[in-house]
Amino acid sequence: MSFELQVNADKTILLIDDNEIDLFINEKVINSKKTGARVIKENSASNAIEKFRSAKSKAHMPDIIFVDLNMPLMNGFDFMENFEKLPDHLISDCKVYLLTSSTHEQDIKKAESYRYIVRYLNKPLDLRELV
Which residues, other chains included, contact 48 with Cβ-Cβ below 8 Å and sequence gap of 6+? Predict the structure, then answer.
């Protein structure tokens, strides 16, 4: 399944995954599109949420977030529960993509219940899917 991701040089992309190899690969895929977007990596969803909680304005928030579903301590759904509790003025422009190897129907349905999840994508991130 393909999707279009509009990214340009003034965008910030946050990759959240506990697997360093997946972070590396996803960063390379995004950077290979030569969008000029700034890519930030975080290996813990809870660390990302803590940084968001201390954000002073929308300018301190990423434009696009790719978050892994299956992580220890705080998984992708736990992340979304915490993310959607953040002030709307901070997160209203954020687009979240749930990146996972899970094809379970219940995971797909649950992902649809979050207002900030734009798409449910299967790993690995595919270069052909980034436009």
Answer: 14, 16, 42, 65, 67, 79
